[in-house]
């Protein structure tokens, strides 16, 4: 039994051409042969070592051996340490995915729409190192059975007295889940990959119409060329007089504030108040995590800053960081407000996401919940609410003229220009587009080339024509969509009213305060009525009978006159 096992084991270590006739290796002969070969190899090594020592001392030989060992260790770390690090990082990511079911769902459905490199990992180690293939966020779906999957809007309350706009419920995720679903990579930008901006040290003011020193004076040919979407584009996008936005460009900002704005590399919430037109509204229902990670910036002019002086310290009021803006480029306050509204990607060059809210609005939901609901869950890169009542640009233009929002001739000129370019009234034939008129007081977006291009083009229309951005919105959106198949997520106005509350402008509040009766605090106690005098006691208790109307007699003049005629 033992001999059989020994024969099998010996056969597994030998070579087939040296086996004996009986299939069992000659173990003793093989060991003797190996001993002779080993002694011969030792002699060769000793001869080589003696030869080296003959021409070099022992110290030099030791240094040579130390260098050889160090080189071997270095090569081992370079080639095998990187693979081990990649393995460990993948294990950590897998563990995070297992602990969070929502992250697990995201990773399980993510699809990379870019082909991998043709060079293998081993080839890159030997040859030139290639950059990794780009990866993009392509959306996710919530787990089956999640309440938001089956959420539907309830019917509006049957209140005949209230027929105007109102908020409706929105299915948000908890802040922790929304933060966990924040994309680690940017979304895909169709066609355009590189977007640069024009800087003109000497402005060329030769243009057909429109333009400004802040936005430049692009010709109509340059305007048409900017709608020819290409992979790399250089275009007007405000701040044309300086190489850095906010420094000698108009809309100038202190260097300390610019430095802080460059440090914001995640989510920014921005607003603006010019001309002391509004009262700063503090956000509510904001998580502690958002207070620590989200940048809240309020841009004010010198008039507003003077009105706020003494009400803040360290450039902060609540969560808002106050940024003083000097040298406003326009005399129209509404047009000045379009600079931070549409060009946040230029003011915050390192931010990934932004949420713009008008100065009259109060934010009442967490920014991460809003981003998850209207961007990430919809796989959108820009979201804006549609107007609650108007869907057609032509109707919107007439409403602006009736309300005196802008010069009527300028509005007519803009609409006629768009009509010649192909603008048509809104109809159901434009589906899935649900509206041509936005409610532009809130803009939610990701800062990637395609969304940056959209807001640049939108700002250029505002700079060339009227400041009423609702009129130019659909023209810019449709021209980009025709070239790239990219569009905007237009959600319901009642959903917008769920996370922002509109307040009155300061002048309206002052007018209401003048009309309201003065309020005295604390209110005075009511003075009791004095008791009646004794001689009026019986009189006050007497009941006065009601006065009866005098009955009309049946034989009135009219009746007597009729009776005479009959006779």
From TrEMBL:
Pfam families: TOD1_MUCI70 (PF04765). The keyword Ligase does not apply. The chain crosses the membrane at residues 61-81. Residues 523-535 have a biased composition (Pro residues). It comes from the Eukaryota. Residues 523-567 are annotated as: Disordered. This is Protein strawberry notch. It comes from Gossypium arboreum.
């Amino acid at each position: 039994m033992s001999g059989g096992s020994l024969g099998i084991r010996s056969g597994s270590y030998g070579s087939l051409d040296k086996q004996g006739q009986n299939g069992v290796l000659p173990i003793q002969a093989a060991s003797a042969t190996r001993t002779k070969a080993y002694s011969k190899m030792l002699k060769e090594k000793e001869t080589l070592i003696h030869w080296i020592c003959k021409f070099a001392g022992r110290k030099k030989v030791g240094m040579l051996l130390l260098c050889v060992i160090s080189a071997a260790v270095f090569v081992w770390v370079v080639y095998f340490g990187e693979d081990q690090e990649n393995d460990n990082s993948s294990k950590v990511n897998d563990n995070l995915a297992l602990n969070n079911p929502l992250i697990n769902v995201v990773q399980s459905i993510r699809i990379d729409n870019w082909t991998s490199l043709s060079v293998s990992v081993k080839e890159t180690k030997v040859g030139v190192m290639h950059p990794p293939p780009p990866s993009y966020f392509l959306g996710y779906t919530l787990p089956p059975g999640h309440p938001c999957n089956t959420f539907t809007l309830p019917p509006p309350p049957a209140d005949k007295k209230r027929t105007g706009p109102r908020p409706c419920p929105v299915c948000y995720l908890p802040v922790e889940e929304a933060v966990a679903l924040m994309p680690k990579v940017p979304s895909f930008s169709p066609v355009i990959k590189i977007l640069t901006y024009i800087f003109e040290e000497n402005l060329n003011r030769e243009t057909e119409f429109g333009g400004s020193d802040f936005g430049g004076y692009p010709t109509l040919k340059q305007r048409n060329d900017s709608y020819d979407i290409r992979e790399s584009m250089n275009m007007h996008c405000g701040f044309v007089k300086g190489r850095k936005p906010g420094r000698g460009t108009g809309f100038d900002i202190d260097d300390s504030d610019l430095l802080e704005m460059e440090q914001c590399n995640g989510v920014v919430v921005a607003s603006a108040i010019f001309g002391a037109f509004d009262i700063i509204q503090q956000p509510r229902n904001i998580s502690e995590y958002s207070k620590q990670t989200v940048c809240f910036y309020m841009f004010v002019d010198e008039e507003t800053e003077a009105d706020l002086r003494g009400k803040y310290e360290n450039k902060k009021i609540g969560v808002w960081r106050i940024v003083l803006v000097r040298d406003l480029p326009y005399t129209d306050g509404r047009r000045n407000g379009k600079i931070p509204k549409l060009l946040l990607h230029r003011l915050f060059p390192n931010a990934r996401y932004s949420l713009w809210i008008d100065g009259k609005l109060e934010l009442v939901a967490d920014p991460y919940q809003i981003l998850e609901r209207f961007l990430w869950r919809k796989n959108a890169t820009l979201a804006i609410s549609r107007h609650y009542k108007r869907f057609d640009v032509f109707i919107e233009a007439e409403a602006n003229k009736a309300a005196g929002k802008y010069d009527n001739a300028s509005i007519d000129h803009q609409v006629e220009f768009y009509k010649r370019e192909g603008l048509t009234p809104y109809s159901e034939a434009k589906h899935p587009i649900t509206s041509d008129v936005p409610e532009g007081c809130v803009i939610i977006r990701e800062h990637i080339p395609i969304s940056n291009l959209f807001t640049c083009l939108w700002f250029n229309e505002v700079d060339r024509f009227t400041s009423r951005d609702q009129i130019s919105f659909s023209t810019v959106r449709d021209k980009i969509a025709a070239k790239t198949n990219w569009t905007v997520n237009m959600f319901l106005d009642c959903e917008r009213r769920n996370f922002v509350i509109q307040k009155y402008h300061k002048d309206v509040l002052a007018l209401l305060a003048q009309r309201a009766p003065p309020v005295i605090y604390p209110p005075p106690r009511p003075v009791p009525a004095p008791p009646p005098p004794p001689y009026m006691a019986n009189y006050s208790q007497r009941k006065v009978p009601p006065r009866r109307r005098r009955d009309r007699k049946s034989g009135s003049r009219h009746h007597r006159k009729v009776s005479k005629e009959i006779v």
